[in-house]
Queue: 2 jobs
Job 1
Amino acid sequence: MACSVLHVADKLALVRGITPKGLGVSGSDLHRKYQIPRLSLASNSRNLRVKTLIPKCSVSASRPVSQPRFIQHKKEAFWFYRFLSIVYDHIINPGHWTEDMREEALEPADLNSRDLVVVDVGGGTGFTTLGIVKNVDAKNVTILDQSPHQLAKAKEKEPLKECRIIEGDAEDLPFPTDYADRYVSAGSIEYWPDPQRGIKEAYRVLKKGGKACLIGPVYPTFWLSRFFADVWMLFPKEEEYIEWFQKAGFTDVKLKRIGPKWYRGVRRHGLIMGCSVTGVKPASGDSPLQLGPKAEDVSKPVNPLIFLYRFILGALAGAYYVLVPIYMWIKDQIVPKGQPI
């Protein structure tokens, strides 16, 4: 069953004209390159250095990044959030992106001055931005998202009234080179057809010495959760985040694990908001990384039947991850503290 559905996903990607471009590498390639069965995922520009001991995410490889999942397309994501925006702050955030998690994830971004110029890419309803404006003047913050429905929710929030709110594409940012002091993106990379391009753009828009902070999912180790993750959207491995940041030109790349308290650090089922990755831009100008054309052209027409089929399957797979935090919360109430779950 799992193999057949993923085979259909590959065929649909080919129908759309998306071919593998080698953007990213498989988990097995990364393990062979880094040889890190138990190693920190904090790094500098030349090598990885030990900070804390953590286990590998998984011994099995996820689907290649060049073969997008059902909702790892901009058009599907647009309509997915057309409906999800209605309940996002009240239904999704409590199980996947809490205020405590937000504060922990933003801490490495060094939002240490009211005068910093910050771009919040994929800012959605502004939940992450609310954490940013605690330390940075709202007038210096720009929220960008491709979903007008999500942004409409952000506009309703009083602390964000002075923020600049615009529609835009994370893989083609409407900001000049060397523009911002900080780049923040939370819960957005999972929908990027070309994550390496999005991180390259983060590098470009930052000033020299600026810092990028990308918060996103981590790949699960449990087989059923891996299946639904691969059908639904992009769940990168922790090593892949580091690879993308380093290829884009960032230095002092570090990864910090986050998660709801009731998960007790367990990664079996993956986390939609599971890590905060930071990197520093060492020099002015564009990223040294050269890429070809975009993986997805949203201006091209799409067969409506194929679109609907992909959207429905992707949304059903996403429903699994609505149930996971409920399951983990119940286990946390039953299993005594101090025991792994």
Job 2
Amino acid sequence: MDDMKEEVPNTIVTKLSADVMIDILSRFPVKTILSFRCVCKTWLRIISDKDFANPHLSRSPPGILIKALPEGGISSIFHLFQIHEETGKTFKVERMEFVPETNLPATANIELMNSCNGLLCLSGGEFRNVIHVCNPILCEHIEIQVDDRKTCLYGNYFALGCSATGNQYKVLWTFYQNDRHRCPKAEIYAIKTGHWRSVGNGFSIGRLDFNTSLHGCIHWARYETSLECICSFDFESEQFKRLPAPPICDGNLDGFIRLGVLKDCLSVTVRKWDAPYEIHVWVMNEYGVQESWSKQILFKPDYHHFISYEPLILLRRGKILILLDGELVVCYNIEKIRSWGRIIKSENMEDTHAIAYNPSFVSLHHIAAGEEQVLR
């Protein structure tokens, strides 16, 4: 293939500096950039360089990754929908499909845990004793083994994160040692080191919502009918922390609470028993400061025959993407209080799971050089 990648003729494009070329190429959609790698050796080298990943990631449009298990199937297929906002009032959706043995590990029914900077954290193996860190865009993944003696423990949950400095990717594992001693334990796996180590007692993750990564931390909520607190784990200091909750702890919540990130701020979406069709979105404008919580969005979806409403991504011009019953994504215009169109519909699927996902060119060959093998 390298023989086919001839250098392009000496033109004004080839005379541009590497920094300028990175700035230009990183602005294109993922599919276009992938095709650019076949243009010439120079472009292949620029796109494959580790300095290309961050500029592209900062411009990567918001995306939704849906894991779907087809009816009667054993292999999961991931569907990526990227939202490209146009200069006018419209936007387009670019779709990609990730399949086992090509973009994903060749493991039946892998469980999607979370994502970080375009990398996926997947749980697999017969007893969920193998963690896969994967970049489906580059068709790369590594395997991390989990102690077989601990895989039968209670409340296992894994999450991938990156330190605030961006120098280290890590996998967090929370679990209970038995069903009576309700004190969750935690271990951390720093990629490149090849081993797990204890970080002591922590908080059980339970679930991660659509996108809760912010300032090198992941966030999740502890709640029943009231929001008790917001938990976080800092991948830089490797410490668990509690953040103040918004002033909605009135015992009237119906169990629907979702954390997310809207406009680079932590957000909490809630619904109450006495108003099941009203969606309240609170935003922490100053990270860690309780007084900075403000209720910025209140809307009443007109899809009353659905059970759950999950705000996913806040777009420009007052539009928000909403996941209905875990299978249908619609665009809702907050300012005009009406639905603006159907975006995604999962059909003929037995099981679906969706997370926020921005595809990237972060290569495991760069961040996991110490691992035994980067499979491609």
